[in-house]
Design a protein that fits this description.
By secondary structure, the chain is an alpha+beta fold. The chain is built from six helices and five strands, in the order H-H-H-E-E-E-H-E-E-H-H. The chain has a single domain, classed as Lambda Exonuclease, Chain A, CATH 3.90.320. The chain is 42% helix and 20% strand. The protein binds iron/sulfur cluster. Iron/sulfur cluster (SF4) binds next to helix 2 and helix 6.
Length: 163
């Protein structure tokens, strides 16, 4: 399975959403939350930063100095910071496996907020465990059951789940 950073984000939000997304079941593209998120991701900080691709991973370089490389991930809200953190951890691990040590920065331009993310041994162990769970969930024939959570009201799949 080709697991990317987005899988880690969904895994930490809703495992059902993870399954749907992994099956390429497209959410409601007219959903305004999806549009705003896409717009912010495409336009925030872009004039200052460079977006680089590394394998199947894309991220913004925030700072490349003697102190090291810092990569960033832009989000529209810090409400889901835990999920965003693990997505960024995954990118940091991809770089580490290629011999590049970097730290991460979560960017919330609408809130004028930044949050540092460091990949340490515990985080690497947690990533590995999550990766195994992601694989288990995505290879199941059926999606996980609906679990009503706060995120449902912002989810592009809500019509699919609740109609
Ligand atoms: S609507 Fe709720 S249960 Fe359904 S996929 Fe979205 S977050 Fe998960």
């Amino acid at each position: 399975m080709d697991i990317n950073g987005t899988y880690f984000w969904y895994y930490n939000i809703c495992t059902r959403e993870l399954w749907l997304m992994s099956r390429k079941i497209v959410p409601d593209q007219q959903d305004e939350n999806i549009d705003i998120g896409r717009f912010i991701h495409e336009h925030s900080y872009k004039r200052k930063d460079k977006e680089i691709s590394f394998g199947n991973v894309k991220f913004d370089v925030i700072l490349d100095s003697k102190q090291g490389l810092t990569i960033g991930e832009t989000k529209k809200t810090s409400k889901y910071s835990e999920a965003s953190k693990w997505q960024l951890m995954f990118y940091l691990r991809v770089l580490k496996m290629a011999g590049i040590n970097a730290k991460g920065m979560l960017l919330y331009p609408q809130e004028r907020k930044r949050e540092e993310v460091i990949l340490n041994e515990d985080a690497e162990k947690a990533l590995l465990e999550m990766e195994q769970n992601i694989e288990k969930i995505c290879t199941c024939m059926k999606p996980p059951k609906i679990k009503r959570i706060g995120y449902c009201k912002n989810c592009g799949y809500r019509e699919y789940c609740y109609s």
